[in-house]
Amino acid sequence: MDLQLKDRTVVVTGASSGVGLATARYLLSEGARVAACARDAGRLSAAFDEFSWADKDAVYLASCDVTDQDATNSFIAGTLDRFGAVDGLVCNAGRSLMATLQDTTDQQLRDEFSLKIFGVLNMVRSARSALNASPHGSVVNVNAILSRQPELRLAATSAARAALLNLTHSLAEDLATEGTRVNSVLLGLVDTGQWRRRFEEAGSELDYEAWSAEIAANRGIKLGRFGTAEEVAFHIVSLLSPLSGYTTGATIDVGGGVGRYV
Questions:
Q1: How far is CA 194 from CA 61, 129, 188, 249, in A?
Q2: Does the N terminus or the C terminus of the chain have fewer Cβ atoms within 10 A?
Q3: CA dihedral in degrees (161, 36, 227, 153; nearest 10)?
Q4: How far apart are CA 211 and CA 165, in angstroms?
Q5: What is the structure's pLDDT at 116?
Q6: Within a 10 A sphere around the Cβ of 168, how many other Cβ atoms?
């Protein structure tokens, strides 16, 4: 299926690994132009070296701290200098803080909200005019099922994710009058480098597949496994497509059935 993304410019944050990198790969395969950022420029560049099949003129890479408005302004300005437009924005920069409220410092809580809220709001502010100038402006915020189903061991992250979901609905209403759509993808457990590192640190006698399946069972994931970054990227790219032009303010769960809310 042609998703009608050829020659459209999409910005992807947190693009050096996992979901962000998989999304960039999918977009390039659809003929889109990708402006990708991450905090570590070297890691970002190394990650994109795998796309030897892609048109190098269709890729713009830069370091960017999405919690810094000046940095996001500079990144979007660089994207416009390179491609002349921004048609889509994928706000994917994020992390999880594994800690209960009792074990979370005030600064850690502030950092979680800074990344989850300002990491999105700064990018939207920087790209808003360009998105509104596009005939198919679209924003996809990569969020988590934690936003609707909090976990005590991820207390600060759960709270920040809930705030982001609320913000996303406000942005959807605000930007709709300008023709830009805003939607969310809510993740469950996804097989990324973070989980691979946790597996190595655990020192388990199980192999990774058995170890991750055990965690999936303990977390109540009905499909019995972690998701893949590619499975998430499919939904992100689909929401960016003009074929989803009548969808805004929506959320899609990609969690293997872990969501228990109504």
A1: 22, 35, 14, 29
A2: C
A3: -30
A4: 31
A5: 96
A6: 24
- Placement of tokens 């934690």 in the chain: 146
| 56 contact partners, CB below 8 Å, separation of at least 6 | none
Query: How confident is residue 56, by pLDDT bands cut at 50, 70 and 90?
Result: very high
Q: Nearest CA to 199 among 213, 212, 186?
A: 212
Encoding tokens for residue 225? Answer: 């496994």
* pTM, entire model: 0.95
Which residue in this structure is represented by tokens 């009905």?
222
Beta strand 138-144 with 181-187: parallel, antiparallel or unpaired? parallel
**Tokens encoding 223:** 């499909």
Over residues 164-174, the pLDDT tens digits come to 999 999 999 99
* Residue 118, token pair as written in the block: 């300002």
Dihedral pair phi/psi, residue 138, rounded to 5° = -150, 140
Which distant-in-sequence residues (6+ apart) come within 8 Å of 82 by Cβ? 35, 60
Rg of the chain over Cα atoms, rounded to whole angstroms, equals: 18
Instruction: Return the percentage of the chain with pLDDT > 90, whole number.
Output: 88
State yes or no: pLDDT of 232 exceeds 90. yes
CB-count burial class (<10 Å; 0-12, 13-18, 19+) for 202: exposed
Whether the CB-CB separation of 206 and 214 falls below 8 Å is answered with yes
State the pLDDT at residue 31: 97
Helix (H, G, I), strand (E, B) or coil at 39: coil
Q: Mean pLDDT across the stretch 46-62?
A: 96
C-alpha torsion 123→129→132→133, nearest 10? -130
